[in-house]
UniProtKB/TrEMBL annotation:
Span of domain AMP-dependent synthetase/ligase: 123-299
Keyword Ligase attributed: yes
Keywords for the protein's UniProt record, in alphabetical order: Ligase
GO MF annotation terms: ligase activity
Protein name (database record): AMP-dependent synthetase
SUPFAM superfamilies recorded: Acetyl-CoA synthetase-like
The organism's taxonomic lineage, starting at the top: Bacteria, Pseudomonadati, Pseudomonadota, Gammaproteobacteria, Chromatiales
Alphabetized PANTHER family for the sequence: LONG-CHAIN-FATTY-ACID--COA LIGASE (PTHR43767)
Membrane-spanning ranges: none
Top-level lineage group: Bacteria
């Protein structure tokens, strides 16, 4: 009886396109492989390793090195000491690969400083076992405690092939991927790292955050694809800058309203495509928001609703059906409409509302720069709050004025008590607001009141 040959997938695509750009330098794929192999040789024996690198090239080198060692990339939702300690307790031998400040807990540190200057690897492109767990990604915690989700190298290969087909990145000398989202986030991992590793695109090592930095990156990298979030995109539109024209904009992490999408296409002079995904399933669908309300599933991915009304997806990247964390109206196996997150559906005194819709109404009030509703829950009761609360950034509007504006557009049952004005909201790098952070801010206000 002969053994079944192990199925493998290449670590990188065989293409002359550079793997990365560091400043004005193009880093070849052979130079990248040399960096990854050198780092892999330094990794201690372990089941997994934290990939905390902030520079996208450093992250890519660490990502590849961890795979080459047969280990798992641990991708925490943030660098908070409590979060890291919780994950480290499950992987006590896991080192932390870093390129900035050390993690603030007792984790062995391995510094990454590769810059594509270690020479060039020769020989065949390394192959990674298809069933090897490549990443353990953690949800953002915006609706509760972060949870872990494993993705195999086969699954990451499959979803990347789907996306490259959808966004016309299958051949040629591809664009530079300019990402405002960190690579530890599944959207950032798939859309800025994997499109480069497994396609013909080039990743930009830096992560521009402020509008002027994003504008400069677009001006320096032509052609370019801007990979961003509604939070960063709105900041760019408010900045009033003259924008270079990218090939396209990709946007994800939260629903984008058609008005903002239309403004973005006019200001940047290119099409904008949204990506629908979640940590549980990765990216599964896309739409051009200015023209479509429905989402179209990636090639090969199919959706259906089970008997309890929950939407599930199955495809090449999903060995088993994956339930989706959103309220979804399935039109057919390839098309659906998102009605909001399941956790966003509120029922107060028999009346229903969508948390996303309440947030939209709050942020539409003139003078409100940022705002968020906090739904009631058992964790909130510990802070003495048993109904909806809200945190608002509005320097020139009083709490009473904002409450009056809200009273004109929603049922009194959903008016926030309390409504707290703050200097800024503690958004994550993807623009999300972890629930516990909001509760801590609300509690701090109560102590200071």
């Amino acid at each position: 009886m002969t053994d079944t040959p192990q199925v493998t997938r290449p670590l990188i695509a065989d293409t002359p396109a550079p793997l990365a750009r560091i400043g004005d330098r193009a880093i070849s794929r052979a130079a990248f492989l040399a960096d990854a192999q050198a780092l892999a040789a330094r990794l201690p024996q372990a089941q997994a390793a934290f990939n905390l690198c902030q520079d996208r090239y450093h992250f890519a080198v660490a990502f590849a090195a961890i795979l080459l060692r047969g280990q798992v990339n641990l991708l925490p939702p943030n660098r908070g000491s409590t979060t890291l300690a919780e994950i480290a307790s499950q992987y006590p031998d896991a080192p932390a690969l870093v390129d900035g400040p050390d993690a603030e807990i007792a984790i062995p540190i391995l510094r990454v400083s590769a810059r594509g200057e270690a020479g060039e690897a020769t020989g065949a492109i390394p192959e990674i076992p298809a069933d090897q767990t490549a990443v353990l990604a953690f949800s953002s915690g915006s609706t509760g405690t972060p949870t872990a989700h494993a993705r195999s190298w086969e699954a990451l290969h499959a979803v990347t092939c789907q996306a490259l087909e959808c966004f016309d990145l299958v051949d040629g000398s591809g664009p530079t991927l300019i990402g405002t989202v960190p690579p530890q986030h599944m959207y950032g991992l798939e859309s800025t790292l994997l499109y480069a590793l497994l396609g013909h695109a080039t990743l930009l090592a830096g992560r521009p955050f402020y509008p002027e930095d994003i504008r400069a990156a677009l001006a320096d990298c032509t052609p370019a694809v801007l990979v961003t979030t509604p939070f960063h995109l709105s900041a760019c539109l408010r900045a009033g800058l003259e924008w270079p024209t990218p090939e396209r904009i990709l946007c994800a992490t939260a629903p984008l309203d058609p008005e903002t999408a239309g403004q973005a296409e006019r200001v940047f002079g290119c099409r904008l495509d949204e990506i629908y995904g979640c940590t549980e399933a990765g990216a599964i669908a896309t739409r051009r928001t200015t023209r479509e309300s429905d989402w179209t599933a990636y090639p090969g991915a199919q959706l259906h609703r089970d008997d309890d009304g929950l939407a599930r997806v199955q495809g090449p990247q999903h060995p088993e059906e994956v339930p989706l964390p959103d309220h979804i109206e399935v039109r057919d196996v390839s098309h659906f409409r998102m009605e909001g997150r399941l956790a966003d559906q509120l029922n107060i005194a028999g009346k229903r509302a969508s948390l996303a819709d309440l947030n939209r109404r709050l942020n539409a009030i003139p003078g409100v720069l940022d705002g968020v509703f906090i739904p009631p829950g058992t964790d909130q009761e510990a802070h003495g709050v048993t109904r909806l609360a809200a945190l608002v950034v509005a320097p020139d509007r009083s709490a009473a004025e904002i409450q009056a504006a809200l009273a004109e557009c929603m049922d009194p049952l959903f008016l926030p008590r309390p409504l707290v004005r703050v200097d800024h909201l503690p958004r994550s790098a993807t623009g999300k607001l972890p629930r516990q952070v909001l509760l801590d801010l609300l509690a701090h206000h109560g102590r200071c009141a």
